[in-house]
Design a protein that fits this description.
The protein is 34% helix and 22% strand. The protein is α/β, with parallel strands linked by helices. The protein binds zinc ion (ZN). Zinc ion (ZN) binds next to loops.
């Protein structure tokens, strides 16, 4: 593994250790003190953006905005517009999209751009790739957030015996699941990254050698590894298992517990810097609100109350000054807890994430109208069967196909699953399309999209359907 700029990377990591201390102090603060910090950071960010970013400077002028700015005065930015106006958003004019793309094409490890920036891009699972550049201090904060997650899982820097932390993530250093561990593997922690796209036999062999203390990966990958352990080919004993990047089902949690016995954590994160970590006390994932602000809103961008499922979220990073991320639209549908957590942390919790709103499919209603079926409805039905280990819903022009991976000996529930799903669709007002159930041993094809698969796949042109519902 190439390790250029070793000294610089070490400086970034040392800074991250100091930041981590500060972050951990926030976990003991009362809510009011956290909100004051958010407000101070927000004021600084909005002030900076309207001075240094051409787009926000122009906007503040055109709208006649006056200080102190309010977040609600700023426009909502979807991924497409964000990337179209990238060159006007960044606060360092040297960071044009074209130049960053050129740089990214040459990245093979932890290289800096202009000796100052690390550049990431998203997997593009929602259709639009986003590019994010972090300056060195901003990157140290990303590292500090990652250390905070590790300490919540019981691993501290400077511990005498550095435990092995193995992440099975994206195969690309342009993605944070690969880049963060790579940038931090220089002394304090022992990080390894294995590509989720590698053949399972190869991963099994490497894991047997590495013997991870913490094992992190996409839940779909963890499910495969549980099977390998049951079959006796994999022989590891991780004390902590953490899933992220896809929903972590109750069933997988049980399997991991019965096979490895350690703690299981669910982690949520986006490359734009939004992070949340499962609380072991009261359930749900605490959002790192000292680093960002999350607004849960409906389809028309109106805030929804805590405890209610939103259609999407708007994220504002409180620590991104190179490339302001302000009211940035993320298509995850989530519910935040209405009550504070019994653990005493001031951060609000995500109680549920029910897929992405671009996974909504449209079925016929009785009058020829279109009925939107959100992924949450499939999740509701399929999650109620303990024997279903993984699933995929495929929407073809002539109906729905459910591909289910079952625990052994439970193939006879296929009929019941089909009936329950048809019942659910009828209650939503959709006339029943043909629904077929396929039992499969794997949901395969992990070669694309970083080794993840999509739970909902549509082979039907959505543009007409969306228009018909309006
Ligand atoms: Zn808690």
């Amino acid at each position: 593994m190439a390790k250029p700029n070793r000294l610089r990377r070490l400086e970034d990591l040392v800074r991250a250790v100091a930041y981590r201390q500060t972050l951990i102090r926030h976990e003991y603060w009362p809510r009011t003190k956290l909100e004051e910090l958010q407000q101070r950071r927000l004021t600084k960010l909005l002030d900076w953006a309207t001075r240094k970013s051409p787009l926000y400077r122009e906007l503040a002028g055109a709208r006649g905005m006056t200080k102190p700015y309010s977040l609600q005065d700023f426009p909502i930015m979807d991924k497409k517009s964000y990337m179209e106006r990238f060159d006007e958003i960044v606060t360092d004019p040297r960071l044009s999209l074209a130049r960053l793309q050129e740089h990214m094409a040459s990245v093979s490890g932890d290289e800096y751009y202009l000796g100052e920036y690390r550049v990431l891009t998203t997997a593009g699972s929602s259709g639009h790739k986003t590019v994010i550049a972090f300056n060195r201090k901003e990157w140290s904060l990303q590292e500090a957030a990652s250390m905070r997650i590790a300490s919540m899982m019981g691993v501290l820097p400077f511990s005498r015996k550095r435990p092995q932390i193995v992440t099975i993530g994206s195969p690309s250093p342009l993605h944070d699941s690969y880049r963060l561990p790579l940038s931090m593997d220089i002394g304090l922690y022992r990080y390894h990254v294995l590509p989720a796209t590698a053949p399972v036999e190869e991963l099994v062999c490497q894991l047997n050698t590495l013997q991870p203390y913490i094992l992190r990966g996409f839940p779909s990958m963890l499910g495969l590894l549980v099977t390998e352990q049951i079959l006796g080919r994999l022989d590891i004993r991780p004390c902590v298992v953490a899933g992220g990047g896809e929903p972590l089902s109750g069933e997988l949690r049980k399997q991991v517990n019965s096979v490895w016995g350690g703690s299981v954590f669910d982690i949520y994160g986006t490359q734009e810097g939004l992070r949340a970590m499962e609380c072991g006390v009261d359930g749900g994932m605490h959002i790192f609100e000292d680093l960002g602000i999350v607004e849960v809103v409906d389809e028309d961008n109106r805030p929804v109350p805590d405890g209610t499922l939103g259609h999407k979220i708007l994220f504002t990073s409180l620590v991104g000054f190179t490339q302001p991320v302000i009211r940035y639209e993320i298509s995850d549908m989530m519910v935040l807890a209405a009550e504070p957590c019994a653990c005493g942390q001031p951060f609000r919790r995500i109680l549920a994430i029910n897929g992405r709103n671009d996974d909504v499919i449209y079925l016929e209603g009785p009058g020829g109208n279109k009925v939107a079926v959100h992924p949450v409805h499939f999740w509701d039905v399929l999650e109620s069967y303990e024997a279903i280990r993984q699933y995929q819903v495929i929407h073809d022009p002539d109906g729905l196909r459910l591909r289910l991976v079952f625990a052994e000996g439970n193939g006879n529930i296929a009929r019941s699953v089909r009936e329950q799903l048809l019942h659910k669709l009828r209650t939503l007002g959709a006339t029943c399309p043909s629904v077929s159930v396929e039992l499969v041993t794997t949901l395969e094809d992990r070669s694309g999209n970083m080794g993840k698969w999509k739970n909902i796949v549509s082979n039907v042109d959505k543009s007409e359907s969306v228009a018909a519902t309006r």
